[in-house]
């Protein structure tokens, strides 16, 4: 697998007054896709809750390259671009590609795992999180931190 991919479906409420997808909708699509991916890798909400940990973001950035309109056909591709060997810190990239294979936007998030009881970074990284995140497809320029 080269990436986790998802075809997006835009709603009227995803648009801004200029009739293109509003900036915050991109972040919503990225967040939803990350949760769906974690679920597919065995990190369900039930597992996260029972083991008292979850993902936390330190930075989220979107670079907008080409506007997206309501009827555009967009596929979001998600990969991991950086990770520490113990999977304690990582960066995930979401690329929004149109049907002409043009990059419309790219979201980059930097995150870690949080112990939800202690409200601190999980140390050590839960084994199930290490196993899941290591199965993420990697970018061509993947960097081990």
TrEMBL record:
Record Gene3D superfamilies: Hotdog Thioesterase (3.10.129.10)
Keyword presence, Hydrolase: yes
CDD domains with a match to the protein in the record: 4HBT (cd00586)
Keywords: Hydrolase
GO molecular function: fatty acyl-CoA hydrolase activity
PANTHER family in UniProt: 4-HYDROXYBENZOYL-COA THIOESTERASE FAMILY MEMBER (PTHR31793), LONG-CHAIN ACYL-COA THIOESTERASE FADM (PTHR31793:SF24)
Name assigned to this protein: Acyl-CoA thioester hydrolase
Organism: Flavobacterium xinjiangense
């Amino acid at each position: 697998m080269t990436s986790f991919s998802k075809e997006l479906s835009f709603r009227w409420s995803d648009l801004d007054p200029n009739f293109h997808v509003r900036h915050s909708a991109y972040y919503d699509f990225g967040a939803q896709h990350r949760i769906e991916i974690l679920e597919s890798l065995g990190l369900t909400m039930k597992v996260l809750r029972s083991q008292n940990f979850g993902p936390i973001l330190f930075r989220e950035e979107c670079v907008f390259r080409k506007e997206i309109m309501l009827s555009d056909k967009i596929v979001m591709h998600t990969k991991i671009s950086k990770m520490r060997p113990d999977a304690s810190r990582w960066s995930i990239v979401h690329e929004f590609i149109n049907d002409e294979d043009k990059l419309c936007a790219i979201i980059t998030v930097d995150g870690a795992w949080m112990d939800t009881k202690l409200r601190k970074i999980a140390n050590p990284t839960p084994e199930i999180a290490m196993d899941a995140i290591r199965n993420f497809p990697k970018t061509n320029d993947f960097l081990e931190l």
